[in-house]
From TrEMBL:
The keyword Flavoprotein applies. GO terms for molecular function: FAD binding; oxidoreductase activity. Residues 1-221 form the FAD-binding PCMH-type domain. InterPro entries: CO_DH_flav_C (IPR005107), CO_DH_flav_C_dom_sf (IPR036683), Diverse_Substr_Oxidored (IPR051312), FAD-bd_PCMH (IPR016166), FAD-bd_PCMH-like_sf (IPR036318), FAD-bd_PCMH_sub1 (IPR016167), FAD-bd_PCMH_sub2 (IPR016169), Mopterin_DH_FAD-bd (IPR002346). This is Xanthine dehydrogenase YagS FAD-binding subunit. Keywords: FAD, Flavoprotein. Transmembrane segments: none annotated. It comes from Hymenobacter arizonensis.
């Protein structure tokens, strides 16, 4: 491992300044992703700014939303009474991720900003435009089983691996950010970006911007929800495809719906056209099949991930059936 400096400021502004003024500095929270990447030589920050002394662990009501601090642990969020009552989809998504030990270390902010699990990003002997811009994309013509079917570019076909983020995008969450130019709010759907010509940029965050919290608005999605994750092992594995589904039902009629796919694109993939199609329809398997067909419009596979063109709609149908029956 390379040498690096380590600081642990107790003031938010000091942490922001430390990263904003040094292009080689990174925030570190639980460290479960960043330290792995440093050990493998994928990332080599020269300074780590540990944010664990900042007061960002609270989960509290804020107007019509639950505000979850960026340092609230994944396990704390999933066990929180208010989150369980108001946002069961988020609880299911968090508990589908990683292992209990990891969720005891992983933070809300760190989870959103974890980096792709594309094997070409992790293997420093291989080309990867995300790790080293301009070197090419090893996955394009390589082994691309786990890769994107939506929103990719010829520079990068990696997917975003976070389960929690799939629920947050479906639930219309907003990310609270503090940076060198002040505070701002980012709709969750705009936090992560598509690769385009600059796959090295995962998000729309500016240098030195610190995530301080996420607001999850109250909604009617407290009962008929499902986070359905398909993976190669029953636990401790990233998704091949996942689907988040939340329904507001009036008897068997769908009043409104929130839907998203995970592990199909460079960002959590919100399915607004399919949501709109569901409104006013009966909550039947036939309706869910139609919604899945809408959700898959524009999907395109590579040599080894054609199975996702079948797996993704079936995962969404299963999530919708489970949500309706909940
Ligand atoms: C074996 C294994 C299996 C896993 N399986 C899954 C899985 O199935 N599903 C899943 O979703 N995840 C999975 N994970 C990933 C895990 O959820 C993430 O590693 C974790 O959530 C990252 O959170 P952290 O606090 O440790 O982040 P860190 O490692 O501390 O940070 C990650 C990134 O976020 C930045 N950062 C952290 N906090 C902030 C902040 N507040 N503001 C700005 N930048 C910040 C850091 O600079 C860094 O770039 C797995 C991990 C491992 C090791």
């Amino acid at each position: 491992m390379n040498q690096f400096n380590y600081i642990r400021p107790s003031k938010q502004q000091a942490a922001i300044d430390a990263v904003a003024k040094d292009g080689n500095a990174k925030f570190i929270a639980g460290g479960t992703n960043l330290v792995d990447l440093m050990k493998r030589g994928v990332m080599a920050p020269q300074k780590l700014v540990d944010i664990n002394r900042l007061p960002l662990t609270k989960i509290e009501r804020q107007g019509n939303a639950l505000r979850i601090g960026a340092l609230a642990l994944n396990s704390t969020v999933a066990d929180d009474r208010q989150v369980r009552e108001r946002q069961p989809l988020l609880v299911q998504a968090i508990n589908a991720g990683a292992s209990a030990q990891l969720r005891n270390m992983a933070t809300t902010g760190g989870n959103m900003l974890q980096r792709t699990r594309c094997p070409y990003f992790y293997d420093t002997a291989m080309p990867c435009n995300k790790r080293e811009p301009g070197t090419g994309c090893g996955a394009l013509e390589g082994i691309n089983r786990m890769h994107a079917i939506f929103g990719f570019s010829d520079k990068c076909i990696a997917v975003h691996p976070s389960d929690m983020s799939v629920a947050l995008v479906a639930l219309d969450a907003t990310v609270l950010v503090s940076g060198p130019k002040g505070d701002r709010r980012i709709p969750f759907t705009d936090l992560h970006r598509l690769p385009g010509d600059a796959p090295e940029k995962d998000t729309t965050l500016e240098p030195g911007e610190l995530i301080t919290a996420v607001d999850v608005p109250d909604g009617p999605f407290t009962k008929h929800v499902s986070y359905y994750k398909v993976r190669e092992r029953a636990s401790y594995a990233f998704a091949l495809v996942s689907a988040a589904a939340a329904l507001d039902l009036d008897g068997t009629t769908i009043k409104s719906a929130r839907l998203a796919f995970g592990s199909v694109a460079h960002k959590p993939w919100r399915l607004t056209a399919a949501e709109q199609m569901l409104v006013g329809k009966p909550a039947t398997e036939e309706t869910f099949r139609q919604a899945a067909a809408v959700a898959m419009q524009g999907a395109k596979a590579f040599k080894h991930n054609e199975y996702k063109l079948k797996l993704a709609p079936n995962t969404l149908i299963q999530a919708l059936k489970t949500a309706a029956a909940a």
